[in-house]
Specification:
This protein has about 160 residues and is an alpha/beta fold. The chain is about 40% helix and about 20% strand. It has 5 helices and 7 strands. The protein is globular, with a radius of gyration of 18 Å. The termini are far apart.
């Protein structure tokens, strides 16, 4: 009987904690390329694809050429924003130059922002025009997944 009381108490604490869970922080910070402040909120009324990445990340290196082509082809339809995590500014800049990634990326060296929105890099966060999170793609995104994310984000 005592065991059931402990299990019930643990379940109640877990449910209470999850009900009062804080919202993730706003996606905002210093752009690793320019040093300027950048935020999801700056892309008013535009759908946004947010890419969590790091120069050290094998999956990110694998995804980068496809992502760069996708960004060039669809920048008129959707905004792109990155969160560069567990990285140095120097390595992030080299990575961006190597793969031709021109979209702004928030520098997040301790994964404070990325950790609140994802379980690791690479991750693609898909936001609609109202900046409501629609979808999270964890792992290296294929072209088909990027196309599906674009369709979801731009759906009226």
């Amino acid at each position: 009987m005592f065991r059931y009381v402990l299990v019930a108490a643990a379940l109640a604490l877990t449910l209470a904690a999850s009900a009062g869970a804080a919202k993730p922080p706003a996606i905002a910070g210093q752009d690793v390329l320019t040093g300027r402040h950048v935020a999801l909120s700056q892309f008013r009324a535009r759908p946004v694809l947010v890419v969590v990445w790091g120069s050290w990340c094998y999956g990110c290196r694998t995804e980068a050429p496809t992502l760069a082509r996708f960004v060039r082809a669809h920048a008129h339809q959707v905004a792109f924003l990155g969160i560069d995590t567990y990285d140095t500014k120097q390595n992030a800049r080299k990575f961006s130059a190597r793969f031709g990634l021109t979209f702004p990326s928030i520098w997040d060296p301790r994964e404070l922002l990325a950790g609140a929105w994802s379980r690791g890099a690479p991750t693609l966060l898909v936001f609609n025009r109202r900046h409501v999170l629609l979808q999270r793609v964890e792992g290296t995104a294929s072209l088909a997944q990027l196309d599906a994310a674009l369709k979801a984000a731009t759906r009226p």
